[in-house]
UniProtKB/TrEMBL annotation:
The gene is rpl18. The lineage of its organism: Archaea, Nitrososphaerota, Conexivisphaeria, Conexivisphaerales, Conexivisphaeraceae. Coiled coil: none annotated. It comes from Conexivisphaera calida. Pfam families: Ribosomal_L5e. Part of the 50S ribosomal subunit. Contacts the 5S and 23S rRNAs. PANTHER family: LARGE RIBOSOMAL SUBUNIT PROTEIN UL18 (PTHR23410:SF12), RIBOSOMAL PROTEIN L5-RELATED (PTHR23410). This is one of the proteins that bind and probably mediate the attachment of the 5S RNA into the large ribosomal subunit, where it forms part of the central protuberance. This is Large ribosomal subunit protein uL18. GO terms for cellular component: cytosolic large ribosomal subunit. One of its GO terms (molecular function) is structural constituent of ribosome. Belongs to the universal ribosomal protein uL18 family.
């Protein structure tokens, strides 16, 4: 799992004698193909990356995984935790405490939508959400977008 300045990516490895083999991977750029118009490094994007990774893992016959973050610490409620939540929601068995995973409302982006609504009538809205304003995306639609993209990912993996 890796979070860069712009994207989130995650891989599922299987250990072998000659070295680890990648059996499934997902990247937040892939979300754009399914209609994602928001930040590719946000907590909801991380959740969807985990969801896609979980779907792909199940498709190749992997039903469980153990999180390895390397030198990065696992921080409860973080984007790493959101990837785990997404993989679990897809059906992949990943051990993690429910308390460590982000709330469902944060995974949907409710916090972004509420913040956008609170700033809408102030001059700060255009400043804080300038990228979204330029692209024509209304950040108050975050929860709807998450559900739409999640459904498309599930549909794409079913075929």
């Amino acid at each position: 799992m890796f979070v860069s300045d712009r994207n989130v990516s995650a891989q599922l490895h299987v250990p072998e004698k000659v070295g680890d083999r990648v059996v499934a991977q997902a990247h937040s750029r892939e979300l754009v193909e399914q209609g994602w118009r928001a930040s590719r490094k946000s907590l909801p994007a991380a959740y969807l990356v985990g969801y896609l990774l979980g779907l792909r893992a199940l498709k190749v016959g992997v039903s469980s995984a153990v999180l390895y973050t390397g030198v990065r610490a696992f921080i409860p409620g973080s984007r790493i935790a959101a990837v785990v939540a997404g993989a679990r929601d897809a059906g992949l068995d990943v051990p993690a405490s429910e308390d460590a995973l982000p709330d469902e409302s944060r995974l949907r982006g409710d916090h972004v939508a509420e913040y956008a609504k609170a700033l809408r009538d102030s001059g700060l809205y255009e400043q804080r959400f300038s990228g979204y304003v330029k692209s024509g995306f209304d950040p108050s639609d975050y929860p709807k977008l998450v559900e739409e993209v999640k459904a498309k990912l599930k549909g794409a993996m079913a075929s």
